[in-house]
Amino acid sequence: MSATTLPPHVRLANEIARQFAHKPAEVAALAIVNHIRAVWDPRMKTALVAHVEAGGEDLDPLAALAAQHLKAT
């Protein structure tokens, strides 16, 4: 799937993940979660978690890890 056809929650999570790619995975994931909690609409959060539960296609691994943390809390 191209970046222009990705669902908004996947595209945005991937963009955020790229900003933290230079950090260790766990630190990056927690920074991504903090951003998502502070900025995203609850529907977007729910859509991201559901996307990961459905297999996480096209989702950056750091964004997927963040979604797992988001789901756990």
Description of the structure:
The relative contact order is 0.22. This protein has helices spanning 8-19, 25-39, 42-53, 61-72. The longest helix is centred in the middle third of the chain and has 15 residues, at 25-39. The mean pLDDT is 93. The protein is built from four helices and no strands. By secondary structure, it is mostly helical. The chain is globular and about 25 Å long. 70% of the residues lie in helices and 0% in strands.
How many helix segments? 4
How much of the sequence lies in strands comes to under 5%
- What is the H/E order? HHHH
> What's the count of strands?
0
Helix content: 55-70%
Derived structural class: mainly alpha
Distance between the termini: 30 Å
Q: Could you give a short account of the major beta sheet?
A: none
Mean pLDDT: 93
Over the alpha carbons, how many angstroms does the gyration radius reach?
Answer: 11 Å
The coarse silhouette is globular
Point out poorly predicted stretches: none
What are the key terms here?
73 residues, globular, 0% strand, mainly alpha
Question: TL;DR?
Answer:
This protein has helices at 8-19, 25-39, 42-53, 61-72. The chain has 73 residues and is mainly alpha-helical.
Note the topology.
Blueprint: H1 8-19, H2 25-39, H3 42-53, H4 61-72
